[in-house]
């Protein structure tokens, strides 16, 4: 049996656990002195599919000036209002489990769940995130959009690696099997 495609969440957070301010700003993140690209280019070599929520996609599109952010990757955007395919993106509102089962059956590289917090929560409820690569910025923002929504379940991960990229601490976790 070929290796199963992993689902990975590669993301940056504030020291107090937020992925963005309440108004979706990442200004606090870009002020932090990093080193290189924090392993992003190497990570992307192993990814051929990107999955994100609609708000995240809209934010990325705005940040990229309307250019599709991942034109060389198969990109899925979970949305209740958009359907079909346009602008290098496939919109979907599929149930998470059949969606993931279908993707894992296809040959390919790993799958990146970009965000946001609600979509990540839906994946976590089904224990579908195989790995986390979390870069922690040394900034407290006090309030915002948390990486993890409140959960009524537990999932155990195993620490695979820790790296430093300038002022960022990057933690790499794998799902404990």
Notable features of this structure?
177 residues; alpha/beta; 9-stranded mixed beta sheet; two-stranded antiparallel ribbon; 5 helices
Write a brief caption for the model.
By secondary structure, the protein is of the alpha/beta class.
List the helices and strands and how they pair.
Layout: E1 7-14, E2 18-20, H1 27-30, H2 40-45, E3 47-53, H3 54-63, E4 74-78, E5 84-86, E6 89-92, H4 96-105, E7 110-115, H5 117-125, E8 131-137, E9 145-146, E10 157-165, E11 168-175
Can you count the beta strands?
Answer: 11
Q: What share of residues are in beta strands?
A: 35-45%
Low-confidence stretches: none
What fraction, in percent, of the residue positions are helical?
10-25%
Strand order of the largest sheet: 5-6-4-3-7-1-8-11-10
Largest sheet: 9 strands, mixed
Give a description of the structure.
The chain is an alpha/beta fold and 177 residues long. The longest helix has 10 residues, at 54-63. Helices cover 22% and strands 35% of the residues. It has helices at residues 27-30, 40-45, 54-63, 96-105, 117-125, and strands spanning 7-14, 18-20, 47-53, 74-78, 84-86, 89-92, 110-115, 131-137, 145-146, 157-165, 168-175.
């Amino acid at each position: 049996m070929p290796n199963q495609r992993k689902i990975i969440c590669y993301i940056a957070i504030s020291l107090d656990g937020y992925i963005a301010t309440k108004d979706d700003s990442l200004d606090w993140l870009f002020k932090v002195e990093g080193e290189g690209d924090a392993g992003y280019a190497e990570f992307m070599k192993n990814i051929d599919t990107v999955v994100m929520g609609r708000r995240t996609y809209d934010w990325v599109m705005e940040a990229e000036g309307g250019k599709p952010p991942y034109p060389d990757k198969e990109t899925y955007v979970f949305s209740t209002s958009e359907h079909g395919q346009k602008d290098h993106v496939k919109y979907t509102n599929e149930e998470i489990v059949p969606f993931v089962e279908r993707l894992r059956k296809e040959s390919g590289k790993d799958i990146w769940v970009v965000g946001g917090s609600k979509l990540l929560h839906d994946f976590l409820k089904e224990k579908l995130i195989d790995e986390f690569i979390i870069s922690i910025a040394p900034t407290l923002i006090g309030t915002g959009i948390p990486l993890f929504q409140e959960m009524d379940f537990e999932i155990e991960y195993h620490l695979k690696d820790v790296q430093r990229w300038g002022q960022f601490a990057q933690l790499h976790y794998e799902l404990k099997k």
